[in-house]
Hints:
2 copies of one chain form a homodimer. By secondary structure, the first copy, chain A, is an alpha+beta fold. Chain A starts with a strand and ends with a strand. In chain A, the strands form 3 sheets. In chain A, strands 1-12-3-10-6-5 form a 6-stranded antiparallel beta sheet. A 4-stranded antiparallel beta sheet of chain A has the order 2-11-4-7, with helices on one face. The longest helix of chain A has 10 residues, at 109-118. Chain A has 3 helices and 12 strands. Chain A is globular and about 40 Å long. The interface between A and B is medium-sized, with 32 and 32 residues.
Amino acid sequence: MIEIPARKGRAVRVAKGQRVKVINSRGQQVVDTWAFNAEDLREFMSMEHSRVAIGGIIPVLGDGLVTNRRRPILTLVEDTSGGVHDTLFAACDRWRYEMLGCTEYHDNCTDNLWAGMSALGLAPPETPAPLNLFMNIPVVDGNRVEVRPPVSTPGSFVCLRAEMDCIVAFSACPQDMLPVNGLAMNPTEAHFEILD
Amino acid sequence: MIEIPARKGRAVRVAKGQRVKVINSRGQQVVDTWAFNAEDLREFMSMEHSRVAIGGIIPVLGDGLVTNRRRPILTLVEDTSGGVHDTLFAACDRWRYEMLGCTEYHDNCTDNLWAGMSALGLAPPETPAPLNLFMNIPVVDGNRVEVRPPVSTPGSFVCLRAEMDCIVAFSACPQDMLPVNGLAMNPTEAHFEILD
């Protein structure tokens, strides 16, 4: 079991056929997730292509997330979290926190992606839109989106099966100015495990 | 009035404060739209950042689309089309048509973006998720998305005001295997005009 420290990022190599179990250790913690083809980082999991592939805005059991070349990369094979995730929102970044009033550096999911990849000696070609595991952004009235606290409970998890050799990156979202990570606005650590 | 030929792409320089009027000349024709900061193409209109900024999945009058650095780039200032647009779906590409059964080359919005920019001597840094003007992709039951014919009538239009000097690129979507461009599945030309 590997920790994704609170407010920080981590990346890991996952072989085709292995599963990544992402555990919401304390509950209500959003985990931004990316996946890149290990052979060519320019091919990566794409939310805009995945919504077309799965015919929805939230992956459900059995759904295959696809890359920007429309090839399956991660399949959702287990989910005890309540099934509420987000594909609509960009990863938070320095500009987001500046707009929210931060005058000093704030940890953010974008920098966490780059730091997690960098620890493996890698750099992503860009910052793709993430799969925001456990994030609760409903579409109401056909258009408006709302930021609501996650429904995931402590210890609940999702399992994602790798459909190609890939690098999977995570960020334990450091958002503490909106209820993205629960009404307490207290970002916590999460964990993952690679299963054969 | 400049034509976006049926199935093809076109790009244009737009100065801050100018408006781009995009006309659905024959009705029910989707126009994929991108915008790049003219000073630095790595900054571009981003759907995942714009959904956060506007608090919705479809821009309405007065909404400002923002870049991947969260700065306003285009504002929707006029819309006679019925107000149905899409920010969820990726631009079509060769892989999409291969999956739909095409065995030969099919025009596609991704190649059209690159061709339109290339005609200006430019290359985009990547293929951002487009603003799919006039495209009708409702979210039903809180999750599933449906591909429906556009509601836009012949001659209806939108006006987008440039909030910075930018390159705006268009593709008259060549999708003729799904009712993206109407039940007739007959892609047509569209037009645009730059207004001071």
